[in-house]
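Internal tracking record. Fields below are filled automatically when a chain is submitted to the structure queue. Please do not edit lines marked as system-generated. If the sequence contains nonstandard residues, flag them in the REMARKS field before resubmitting.
Queue: standard
Priority: normal
Entity type: single polypeptide chain
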Amino acid sequence: MTSSSPHIVPAHSKSYRTLVMSMLVLVYAFNFLDRQIIGILAEPIKAEFDLSDKQMGLLLGPSFAILYAVLGVPIAWLADRRSRAWIMTIALTIWSGMTALCGVAGSFTQLFVTRIGVGIGEAGGVAPAYSLISDFTPVKQRGRALSMYSFGIPIGSAIGIVFGGVISTILDWRWAFIIVGLLGIAIAPIFRFIVREPKRGYYDPPTAKVEPASMKEVTQTIFKKPSFWFMSFGAASSSMMGYGLFGWMASYLVRSFGNDLPEFFSWLPSWMLPENPTPVLYAAYFYGTIILFAGIIGMWLGGSLSDKFGSKDKRAYVLVPTIAFAIIIPFYILGLMSNNLTVIFFALMIPTGLGLVWLGPVLAAIQGIAPPNMRASAAALFLLINNLIGIALGPFLIGVISDSLSSKYGNESLRYSILAGTIFYVIAAILLYMASRHIERDWEK
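SYSTEM-GENERATED OUTPUT FOLLOWS
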């Protein structure tokens, strides 16, 4: 696993780079599939273990996020020194195995512990990938490349939602965890066979430093750049709402529109509807479709626009998502306050796409302000902030607010809890705008 391994490849053909990117997207899709599948299974899990929304929020957020975020930093430090491909292979095996174990949990406590295990494994799946992409991709194409990598988020989330809905209907929620976990374990050796370790800093200027940096050097370099802090907390603010929606939207649809969803999908062919379809299945089709199409379009748009304008003005990497966040809220209000599923479907398409615009541009900017030998560590520090706030707090706070409103609004409490969370997009827009005032100066020359 040493960085001097003979498996390091000095150059890469376009076809091989495409193959590597495809494998990275596939693994990232499984990262989010295993992470988000619990959202579509929330209602049957709540029913079996008799949980409150607050307890379900703990399973959706803190159980996974805390060690996922914290361990990402030392693992990224290791990725700046050792084979990133091996680290990702081991991580994929661990989180997939723990996902399968979620399916045999016999209590809230056991499910909480296995979700911690999923987070521990996934801690090694993202920061090393960012670093690999930077070493496989020319500088001017990184925003687009990181956006393409981020396609794994809507693809994995949508597949997890739909697959979880189908399997929980045909079998039960436990088999959904077991099957996707075993599939991830099967993919791990294929990933390692295909992805070879690239030369660090291959596409960076010859003067770029590629020897591993100590964590002290990383923090001294990255923490003094104001744009890092504004981008980290801006992304974290948007992630509070983003992960909150991933975790709770299916439950909201089941509670508020469980009786209306079958009519909305009356046009579906019979082969897509197993015997005795449940509201969970219809909610999976509804939200899974939104995430898949809106998410891919939003990420592609963010990467393309930021690369187009960012080559001339680095501020574009944060101003593009700033504009996206600024126009999200009216569409969320329209979608969440409507009782017409057709209006909800199309109204939520727009903010779902715009809410994911930031991923490629901001991740490219984080890589841009970091020297080549610090990229994995810089990404992990960014993810530490983003995940501790976004994943840990977002779903949990929505659950807490929903419980507090339940005495007044009943089953509709989740609607108003999610609606309250849209304020975080305003905060995100302000913080990313502040980042634009510093990013040119902070960018690594």
